Structures
1.
Amino acid sequence: MHWFTWLFLAALALGTAWRVYLSLRQIRAMANARAAVPVPFDSSINLADHQKACDYTAANSRVAIPDVLYDAVLLLGWTLFGGLSLLDGWWSSLSLSPLLTGVGFLVSALIIMSALTLPFSIYRTFVVEERFGFNKTTPKMFVVDLVKGFFVSLVLGVPLIAVVLWLMDSAGDYWWFYAWLVWTGFSLAITWAYPAFIAPLFNKFSPLSNEDLKTRIESLLRRCGFRSSGIFVMDGSTRSTHGNAYFTGVGNNKRIVFFDTLIDSLEPLEVEAVLAHELGHFRLHHIRKRLILTFLLGLVGLAVLGWLKLQPWFYSALGVTQSSSYMALMLFMLVSPLFTFAFTPVSARTSRRHEFEADEYAARASDASALIKALVKLYRDNATALSPDKLHSSFYDSHPPGPVRVARLQALAAS
């Protein structure tokens, strides 16, 4: 057996075992935390809501265990047990051009992979979310969203795949750099187009009608030096009772979006404080930094793919007998997450630091006490675990644990 096969199997086994271990720790932490509401939430969140959050988090962790094991089996099936070779053989038998064969192979593989993981998505939506009172999605809506997503992915993804494969075969030794330029431009274009052209295919966005809240928000925007193409309310309640707020887009196509569930749950000053936090990410250049880092990592990844594409062992060690540009791309997409998984806590830690910085900005631009009240309501309404397992949280969580975050905001409010 080739050394890379052993490395692949070791990375798969260790990554799978670690994911399962972290899920088991989280389940145990939730069982231990059910008895009492942690400080400083004991006066603002009742025991029943806290226990619901513990049970909801534990339920999601229980689903994660078979999901991780299932993904590992599928990955072995696609690679060492010949799934990709079988699909490649079928497409090759059609005697199409290399470009059409490659596009067909990649698109069909991605469709089959999505279909094979669909049962877990259905279970989470119609069993876990339903059990805890969050799901508002009907089976018809689920199917319609699935079909819409499929066609949007085809319209946007097929041309990108075709261009990248053409570059891999025609642009020489530095094809990966030209592919990176194409991918970067494509990503920026999608980021610009998403709020106005893609998101409305799935949700309704209405201009904010509450004049008092609108005036308050516009005043905040002026203080923060933020220009937006609009303030919108999204019909999040049609699919879920979870609440959120975000801003999206780049350049002159930036939008501020509130879930209608959040507008209904929070007071105007609390909504302002939540928005001030989101604006903090913008003013502190967190989004720009993440985009730049993503593009740099993409460049490194494509350069590595450019080298692997030329290595015969890269194919044979993963159960593929026939090398090709499209097969190299497919194998890289499947295998690279195994080796980048170890960097997950680095990304999570950076994200948590950005959340603290955005909280500090919100405390200066708005009201720290109002943000605390808003967070408490969001933790309650979204059934957010207040006492997550420390190791699980440090490895995965993009946001700081509630008690830690609120304690820092209380210190800011006091000062």
2.
Amino acid sequence: MIAIDRGAAKPLHRQIYDAFRTMIVERSLQAGQQMPSTRALASELGISRIPVLGAYSQLLAEGYFESRPGAGTFVSALFREQPPSFERPRAAAPAGSGPRMIARRCDSLPSREGAPWTSGAGAFSVGQLAFEQFPYQIWASLVSRHARRARATSLNYGSPMGLREFRETLAGYLRTARALRCDAEQIMVVSGSQQALDLSTRVLVDPGSPVWIEEPTYDWMRQTLRLAGCRLVPVPVDGEGVDVARGIRLCRKARAAYVTPSHQYPLGVTMSAARRLQLLDWARGSGAWIVEDDYDSEYRYGSMPIASLQGLDHDSRVIYIGTFSKTLFPSLRLGYMVIPPDLVDRFAAVRRAADLCPPHFQQAVLTDFIGEGHFARHIRRTRLLYSERREALVDAIRREFGPRLEILGAQAGMHLVVTLPQGLSDREIAMRAAEVNLWLWPLSASYTGKNVRQGFILGFGSTAVTEIPRAVDRLRKVLAAERKWS
């Protein structure tokens, strides 16, 4: 039974979506159970069919529902899997290191010399945005306003958690846009997602602790964990996200799992609802932590943004990380964490030891930027722009290469992946492509183990629609020069 409130602030499609999701998560609806048709449900609720269609579409996109041609809509059969039971882990003992002039853990960090894809700006460069679309005049006006209103209190040290007004604004945004369970007291403002990963590692794990990472994964996150001396456990990613059952077989008693469930980096997979619940069940049963890196969830094409993993967590096991580097600009250096209530004091203590507190000024400016609606308008405008650039890139790749290049992860974010035929080296090709101003990030660099796929991570955020076909043509010429390509 679904009850809707026409007078509520929450839209009708969201009320229907939330009701079905809750019933599935709480097992009130069983796997394989047939759902009423959208027309029948709309008639029963006495509303238009449009919000029902919207709710069903989102539930299908997130894997709660499945559609069977000619039969109807059903609760996903994946929910038949029963979560396993676990033993509580024993705390891992910290690992020591011999005396050296330089910390031995620094040796785990690779040298980036000779890798042009890490610094090049242009066609296919990863992490580059449509900077020309940023509302400079509005931002400059807000900066001037706060510069004129500067007070002595804003020049002093602040809370290690960040500016209270900014955290309250963030809490409202995250509850609405990402379905998080949080309030301002749980939010810590950080200088981007990389610092959030570092703080999470300092608080949650000891040197030598086993930690799940996705395979393939975000390279800078992997380096953070290596620097902390963690034992990395690469867990394969398939079409439903990280393979939780495989992770349990590899290392059931891992201390933490670092995941990107809304838009897996780099493959672009969205973790299914069944896998999300399985991951949460594992964390609850084993006493492990989950670090959810939600780096670009605002940019999703074809469906609404996927709800956060943290919003499903009833046991306070998830540390949620977000950033403004992908939505505004990277040099802003502002991100945030949503921390379980019982860990807030621990995170605050580590933050004070690291850098005392975040800078005040940019937080104050961004508070008004969000509160006055500029942020939401910017997201809507850039989402449309990136959707056009993504479509242009997909069309150009298919036109030039046909089935020879497989395209992965084109449904969200500002990058996609193409895989290469066997026998080609993505690193060697990327080095040669840089000579013609193509910045191809090798897919193989994102792998930790030996089972490596060759391909490229292609960013499209900073490349105009008119330039994309020419860039893909240059890529075709680079590949055509490869002896093993033909």
3.
Amino acid sequence: MKRFLLHVAYRVRTGVITLLGCTSAGVLQAGKAERVEYEGAVYHVYRVNPSAFAKLELRWLGKDGLPLGGFAGLLNEVSGTGGNIAFATNAGIYERGPKPCGLTICGGKEQVPLNLQPGEGNFYLMPNGVFYLDDVRGAGVMTSAEYASSGLRPRLATQSGPVLLRKGQFHPAFNADSPNRRLRNAVGVRTSDGQVVFVMSDRDDREKGRVTFHQISRFFLHLGCQDALFLDGDLSDMIVDPPVDFLAVPNTFAAMFVLLK
């Protein structure tokens, strides 16, 4: 069984140990993961074009009604229906269960309602927000309060927090000089064409892979995203083109994004 990590996938495909030192956002390609260095930090970026939106799903519960729990459960569920995964990553913050802390819509069905209650932690760092994918309007990120009055009924949605960017503006609590550097992943929407952009700071690089909220927000602006939503922190991970004998690293997630081949 192969232990398939994202950076190993790069090395297998390219035959080199270090893929990129510094990359312009303009060369990133949809359907392929890229390792990008920007302002001294290292990120993994995966883009999904609108033409592939029909293959992008959000999954939390399996066919048995129980949480999939992580990549292992997701892989078993997908392979059981003859599917293959091109890309997967964890979605929003969760509580015991694992159950998403806020709005979760999978396949057009609301499985967890919108959460507008106050609380402690990143999810409740207001404004928090919703990433959604609507088959008519496309993808977007808005604050939870905006979503509550939007009338949207998207095919998939996840609520998390905090909002990194809204209409090009940083979250008011972010500090450019913050010392709080962590592993982080997030999702944004490119303004020019509605492309969905998934970003995760590098898990293995203990220095360049630990970033602040302000830092990852600046990276999304660099990628052309005016709206972006934080997904989660230290547990974050992503897989790209896992082989048939893929052995998932043990993890616990609630909802997960998955792009099917």
4.
Amino acid sequence: MDLSVIIVSFNTRELLLRCLASVFGTLERALSTGPLSVENRAISRGYEVIVVDNGSRDGSGAAVAHHYPQARLTENEFNLGFAAANNQGMQVSRGRYLLFLNPDTEVLENSIVELVRFMNRHPRAGMVTGGLVDARGRFQHSAFKFPTLWNTFLDFFPISSRVLHSGLNGRYPVGSYTRPFEIDHPLGACMLVRRDVAQRVGLLSEDYFMYCEEVDWCIRIKRDGWQVYCQPQAQIVHHGGASTRQVADRMFVELHRSRLTLFRKYYNPFFQVAARAITGVGLVWEYGRWVQRYLMGEIPRNRFEGRRRACLQVAGLLLGRG
């Protein structure tokens, strides 16, 4: 089997169904009757689609079983996190290539085949991602440089839109997206990985519940001598944040927990101390901003309390209490 598509969902029923429609539609057209084109021979040995539902309460699992019985469905009782659920899918998969898609994505035209073809033509590529656009077709960054102290600073203090979309914040120039280029790591919304690479470097690290798992994976992939690429001609619609918006305050905590974990594993002690200091100052600023919004009547009390508790949790992480 050439390809295993793995999709982890959490309360994204309608988006998940749209994602599956795009995946099955694309792959079925690629393997439709008649002589296979050179492009579509890349998946001529077949594919499978694996859905891991991560404790959804919106009927996602039942909807998948009803509309797409050809998908292999695993339903978890609880949300195990992004890495653990994707690892579940990986462990039952059979394809020589593993395509990880978020449920809030839709693949366009021949994008999956383009990603597989790229890997076939670049034997030292361990991972490749595509080019992301939003629902209106507007560009999104899909490729990033490994985190720096500037990323931590700009998360709390966004100086300007221009800086946020610059190399200072880990972005590659928009002009880079005209042809395939080597990157540090992709956004986790779309990642095509060789099975033998995953077997060499190990599964996604379950040290992370959410965020930074793809960064950790790419660090290990690169240390093992492989390259990571972006193939922008393989376009994917990314609606963005459909799962994380449901629990925004918890995701604020998980983002910083994951970053601290990543820094502890791969960065030097000076970097770790500096990152904690910047985050501490940023938390004070963040809390003050939310207090102001609450006092001005812009947000209700429960929304303010949620962010207040999240800030206290992150402060506890900085002090080594979590």
